[in-house]
Design brief:
This protein is an alpha+beta fold. It has helices at 14-25, 60-84, 102-119, 130-136, 158-171, 215-218, 276-289, 333-340, 343-348, 364-367, and strands at residues 5-10, 30-33, 49-50, 95-99, 126-129, 146-150, 154-155, 175-177, 182-187, 192-196, 201-209, 229-240, 252-254, 259-263, 267-268, 298-308, 315-318, 325-329. The protein contains 10 helices and 18 strands. One of its GO terms (cellular component) is cytoplasm.
Length: 368
């Protein structure tokens, strides 16, 4: 039997590890129960973006939360490096959203103006015509009618980030149990009893559910509705390219090792099976944006499942039925990692200085 731990984090992805690190640095004894390598993990299939453009255009609290996260990333990367010696390859020199449809370009510009109204000074963006882009990025495809640019957007190596969060947690005393699929969680007179699929029982005083898609099953056991669904995304990975790509976009990025990642599909699906149709569409879009990519070889591809809520915004919820239980879920785990490891841990602890997160309560879905 695992020694009793006051706080259990169910889920060892980027979200769970960031929360675990935050609680450990606040002095808590933390145990992370991680699932199987065969689980459908968003952490192993994400695009690695630290992205602000369009986040919360219609929801000011999310716009502000994402803005704070983007601003905190440089310091967060330095902190992780000091704890672990791992460089997560943060590059935050601005990013583009490219458009081949004039109406979509105009609509997204309106969303950014909404976002700017919510954020005020400190947030800036540009709307660039085809002529502006051709001057700034010689070689841009003629099919691109325009683009938006935000100087706070960037990216990291998500696999290095995952390793760094784990090592940082270990440095702060977090204990990890791997291949620890959870079958059920139930409240006791004091604390909670977690039953693993192998029959082992673990007793804890608090539970933070960061299990991604698994929260849909476990959440109701702790009094949560957990309205979570899977959204499929597909990616192409190319050979390493000697010449550096002169831009970062939400669909095309060059990773620090030199290869290109091409992605951006969205499909309502319950599995991570790749589709040729979507892969062809990704390749065509990439060549439309940057025709020089036409001769680059694709080495591999994969599909992964995002964790989505009904409105796309995070859920941060305390259980009203079982005090000491928390639900944390979002689809922007990389972008929000600096806040999950600091401000969200304050909120879990009910620190007087903690941010007000009522706007992310799951009860908003019942009200709407």
């Amino acid at each position: 039997m695992v020694p009793q731990s006051p706080t259990a984090i169910i889920g060892g992805g980027i979200v769970g590890l960031a929360v675990a690190l935050g609680l450990a640095t606040r002095g808590h004894n933390v145990l992370v129960l991680d699932g199987s390598d065969q689980d459908m993990r968003a952490t192993q299939g994400n695009f690695g973006l630290v992205w602000l453009q369009g986040k919360g255009a219609g929801h000011a609290p999310y716009a502000r939360w994402s803005f704070q996260a983007a601003q905190a990333w440089a310091g967060f990367a330095d902190w992780l490096s000091s704890l672990t010696g791992i460089d997560v390859a943060l590059c935050q020199q601005g990013g583009y959203e490219f458009f081949t449809d004039a109406r979509e370009f105009e609509g997204f510009g309106q969303e950014l103006r909404q976002q700017a109204a919510a954020l005020g000074e400190g947030f800036s963006f540009e709307c660039l015509s085809q002529g502006d882009l051709s001057h700034r990025l010689p070689g841009i495809g003629r099919a691109v009618v325009g683009a938006t640019f935000c100087p706070l957007d960037g990216h990291v190596n998500p696999l290095r980030l995952h390793v760094a969060l784990r090592k940082a947690g270990q440095a702060e005393g977090v204990r990890f149990v791997g291949d620890a699929r959870v079958a059920s969680v139930r409240a006791k007179a004091e604390g909670f009893e977690i039953l693993r699929e192998n029959g082992e029982t673990i007793c804890v005083s608090r539970v933070v559910l960061c299990a991604g898609l698994g929260a849909a099953h476990l959440g109701p056991q702790l009094g949560f509705c957990a309205p979570i669904r899977a959204q499929q995304g597909e990616l192409l990975i190319t050979e390493r390219v000697a010449d550096r790509l002169p831009f970062l976009s939400s669909t095309i990025r060059q990773v620090d090792e030199g290869g290109l990642q091409i992605g951006g599909t969205k499909a309502e699906a319950e599995n991570d099976v790749e589709t040729t149709e979507h892969m062809v569409g990704l390749a065509q879009h990439a060549v439309q944006v940057w025709p020089r990519l036409a001769d680059i070889r694709v080495l591999r591809s994969w599909a992964a499942l995002r964790v989505m809520t009904p409105d796309g915004y995070p859920i941060y919820q305390r259980s009203t039925d079982y005090p000491g239980a928390f639900l944390v879920t979002c689809h922007s785990g990389v972008t929000l990692a600096p806040l999950h490891a600091t401000r969200l841990a304050e909120w879990i602890d009910e620190d007087p200085a903690a941010p007000k997160l009522e706007a992310f309560d799951e009860r908003r879905f019942a009200l709407s």
